[in-house]
Amino acid sequence: MSDIHDQIQKEREQARMACDSSGANSEECAAAWDAVEELQAEAAHQRDVKPKNSLEQYCDANPEAAECRVYDD
Question: I need a labelling partner for 11 at 20 to 30 A (CA). Which of 27, 28, 48, 63 fits?
Answer without folding.
Answer: 48
